[in-house]
TrEMBL record:
Designated name of the protein: PAZ domain-containing protein
Organism expressing this protein natively: Caenorhabditis brenneri (Nematode worm)
Record-linked InterPro entries: PAZ_dom (IPR003100), PAZ_dom_sf (IPR036085), RNaseH_sf (IPR036397)
Gene Ontology terms, MF aspect: RNA binding
Pfam families: PAZ
UniProt cross-references to PANTHER family, sorted A to Z: EUKARYOTIC TRANSLATION INITIATION FACTOR 2C
Amino acid sequence: MTNTNEITNGMGNVALDVVGNQPLAAKNKKKTPGTAVQIVTNMRPVTITKNTPMYKYDVKVMFVYSKADGTELVKERSKSIFKGPEHERDKGLCSLVYKRAVRQCPELQKGGPFYYDRQASLYSLSLLKKDPLTLNLVGNDLSKKSNFLRVEFTVTKVADSFQSTSNAIKQSVNIHPNLADKTILEALNLMVSGKALEDPNVLTMGNCVHYLYNDDHIKMDRVRVLTGEKNSAVGTCKSVKTLEGRDKDPSLYLTTELKATLFHPDGYTVLDVLKTYPKFNATRQANDAWSVTVRNSLLGLSCYVTYGPNGNIGVERPMIKIRGFGLSARNQTFEWNGTPTTVLNYYRQKYNINLQFPDLMTVVARGREGKDQNIPVELLELCPGQPVRTEQMIGNEQSDLIKLAAAAPHNRNRITEQVVQSVGLGNDREGYVKVGAPEVVTGYVLPKPTISYGGKTVNWNEPGKRDKTKPLEMWQGLTNDLCYDHQIVYHPVSYPAPLYVAGMYSHRGAEVLAQRSAVYKEGEFDFKATNEQLGVFEKKLFATRFNA
């Protein structure tokens, strides 16, 4: 009998194969109703040197350690299986190894230029003479662990089917998605981020989102939350895409979008964070009301362990993830070497640490063999670069962040341009890739719609219906106000703001409010009365998030 997993996997493969090989739907014919306007987009044309080969190489970064029995333990960092801070740590170590390899290997100094993604891919505009290229690297600048032996660094050319050239732009698009060759786009996405990846003032999440550590020169609002010492950071996400272009000739474009994110503090101990919350005291327990709120804001955070033999070796320190809070170090007991003991006595006897807050709740984390372990909050340090996830937000943090990100179009364009320049997206150092100014395209402001009912007649007996069709100036005004001041959020990457203002805003007003009677006095909306008529009593309409 066929295994159930085999059937499931087979069906999945068939479905994906069918989807990828089906031709895309034909484009709709362009229509030009309304008034033509010029729109500055978030798309920048990309030009690259013609007739230039792009060689792709596979990179392996293997850290080798000695074990107590004399054998070797090998950890590959170049194909990180982790997420979050652990993944970023692996990328940082790979980057460190690559830079050392460049200094040590003449072939990596003369060839290129090279573009390394800090994991398993290296792109070069010249062919390496030696394939594979293997180096053994040593030194405590690569690892400060006492049992560290060496790093095995290997560069191997991948199969010819994965190689590309600068002339392969047309091959990157296909009416059948499975047949599109994305190699050139992968390479260019890495190339345009080259400066950002090397800038110490830029925090890169993944390979496409870049945040500024110091963004004081950007003129925009900020969000700072004193409880938890959370601060907003501004950045941009980017993507190199193949679009139709002006002459219906496949052309490369760099698209960018503004990002505003709240971050946890770097380098704080969990104790430091707890102290920022009002009514903190040294005897807080995991089951009191104060701790429940605080726990939600810290749950899932990654922390470095600051004690033990590896507690002071930088990014290679042991890392744990907060799963919750437990009893205090004085009250929490467990079995150690066959004898019951408390967390307080364990740290005093094994590590010679006298805890300053023995009566404060401890952090619960996953220990050996999947069992829970309790760690004092004063011995855990938050890993850097951790964004505040939605489930970690408390109070008005989410709404404040939404307002910050949903800037008015003219401000959004200005801020995005400043951020793109600050993080260094665009032209590479060698001049192979050149990025132009934002593209200006023609858009059309749609005519204002009118409200009519079935058969273009009015049902006089239905409460709330209008006695005649009416242009939507009032509804457009309300929805515009909701958008810019009260959190209707939208994504202007594909649909420039003027089109949204004229079209989607009015449509939203018609759809949500057309059959109701918003109170409109002296050119302004009475939101309280509007809330009542819309049946929104528990919370204000303008405190509710709508996705347009």
